[in-house]
Amino acid sequence: MALSPQKCFVEDRQVPLDATSDPPALFDGTTRLYISYTCPFAQRVWITRNLKGLQEEIKLVPIDLPNRPAWLKEKVNPANKVPALEHNGKIIGESLDLIKYVDINFDGPSLYPEDSAKREFGEDLLKYVDATFVKTVFGSFKGDPVKETASVFDHVENALKKFDDGPFFLGELSLVDIAYIPFIERFQIFLDEVFKYEIIIGRPNLAAWIENMNKMVAYTQTKTDSDYIVNYFKKFM
Known about the structure:
Keywords: Detoxification. Pfam families: GST_C_2, GST_N_3. The protein is of the alpha+beta class and about 240 residues long. The chain folds into 2 domains: about 1-110, Glutaredoxin (3-Layer(aba) Sandwich); about 115-235, Glutathione S-transferase Yfyf (Class Pi), Chain A, domain 2 (Up-down Bundle), CATH 1.20.1050. Helix content is about 45%, strand content about 10%. The protein is built from 10 helices and 4 strands, in the order E-H-E-H-E-E-H-H-H-H-H-H-H-H. A 4-stranded mixed β-sheet has the order 2-1-3-4, covered by helices on one side. Strand 3 (about 85) and strand 4 form a beta hairpin. Helix 1 (about 40-50) packs parallel to helix 3, helix 1 packs across helix 7 (about 175-195) and helix 7 (about 175-195) packs across helix 10. The longest helix is centred in the middle third of the chain and has 25 residues, at about 115-140. The radius of gyration is 18 Å and the shape is globular.
């Protein structure tokens, strides 16, 4: 898939809105993506927006989640969380639904292949990511991550072998890569720092995939500070 690199630029990060902040002019025709700079679920939609060259079409509204404004729940998202997309007079939530929505409903390069075999495999991987992969790795923090996460990281490694026309899950860059990278980014940092477990050892496809993802400014500008990740994830131990 050929992306237009000139469409993706590095943006200055705005100060997140907190409990003292006024809301934006809701439903005024502006398309807004409500995120937290540290939320992996919101990061998925942020990356999708960037890869499709929608930085001017979709305005980022960063939220300070620990001190979130009351209007986030009252006027934007009754679930009181991010990500949330304000588009065409409605609010849409849930990150995996949102990355598909942005891909289908906005201009820019398609992030999901037409090939039926790839689409079927992609749907399986999207079902696996939160229900099994993320859940298993988070659960391992209280035990032995090396043993408890081997099967799910091996599943990812084997999935990356499925198609040989590129280094990504479906060969070409897709929504599947976007769904996994925010969590693999965090797990790699935390497991290495706290448990001295390097997830790419013995997994060359995973190593190559991470290397290729890190070449994309559309992704790298969304990354979270390593110290924050380590300190936050320690809460789950």
